[in-house]
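Hi C.,

You asked whether I'd gotten around to modeling the 420-residue construct. I have! Everything is below, sequence then structure, no commentary in between.
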Amino acid sequence: MKKFFLSILTVLVLGGHFLSATSSFSAVVAGNTGIEFDNFDNAEKDFKIPISAFAAVQFDFAEKFTLRGEMDFFSDGNSISAFDGNEFLKAEGGNTSLSLHELSFIYTKRAIKSTHFFSVFLGYHEPIGTDTFLMRQFGCDPISSALTKSFSNISGIPLYYNSGLGISYFSRLEKAPLSLGGSLCFFKNDIEGFDASGARTLNIDFRLATSFPVITADLAFGFGFPLENDFDFIDKEEEYSISIRVKDVFYNFGINMLLGNKYGHGLLLQFGMKNFSLGKKSTSPNSRVTFMLEPRLRFRTFKLNFAVYSFEEKNVKKTLYLVDPLGMGLTVEFDSIPAKIAHISAGFHLVASVDKEIRDDFSFDFDISDLNFYVSPFVDIPLSSSMSINVMGQIGLQNLLGGDGFDLKIKAMVGFKKQF
């Protein structure tokens, strides 16, 4: 499987360079690594070496066709003991993944005072919450929170997405910053209770987005139809029948909106609902509620952001600064530090969080002893107009209020981002 993904990326890169004589080619590569101590106060000083990498390529030709590909590699690091003698590099497991985000082919047509985009895609296509759709449609800067910074995607955390084979159509008006359309996606079922052999889900989604100086908004909603197939074969008559059952109807919803602008005062609102049932009183065990509310204040020399958030655990683990799915945070950033190439940004994040997820009933079990606290200083340094590096550290006090002592977590990471 890894060779398959690497082959796809190789074909995209080589194909882009081969056709670059009559077209344009662009790419983004990023990655980071470092060292992480989960229980620093433990005498054995066990540590991990997490690694994250991301690559995105885009090839445009004839001003009508676009080929895109995105993929990422992530490993939370193997548990390595510094006091194991000959077993210094003994691995105790880990969580490693190589994921194809998107492989898409887009045909662009200008007509009727609009630009029309017809696409065929494999993977998940511009999921809401990641800013990808807004950036591609309007060329605007990302609006997602600095707390969700990651080296595993372009920007932000998905509120919900459907991964599979699909088609989409979007239309962007020429005289107004408005884009609307929808997608049809067919993917392998990830909803518990519908994982029988051959089970698939058909998803239909609709989308509306806009970008003005004082408001940037991306709205998506859709319906999922888990399908199960029955095949009845009659050999003698060489006939067969196929019946398709729709077991339930699920709905998804997401909004990603910034009131104000990225460089001044503003309010970020993100809200998502995933796999909520229309036909049953109880929803899928995979249903989730995700959100982030972040007021942003801009002062002369620094920015001050407050945030309350809830994300899926599998998405949080790939971020730099968040550890738990549910919490609140404070960000202080000085983004006007003079440098030779451009301004350096430096600051810190303070986060109080719990290892909980909010599900369909909008409730969760919480005890004050579950609270974890993290402080994460950082600095973003531009090395050129197309390359920057990020250096961060993190000190975590887990179960600090539990009464039985706490676990000390320490992390130091360095990463880079390069645009071609």
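If it helps when you're writing up: Confidence is low (pLDDT under 50) at residues 79-93, 189-198.

Thanks,
B.
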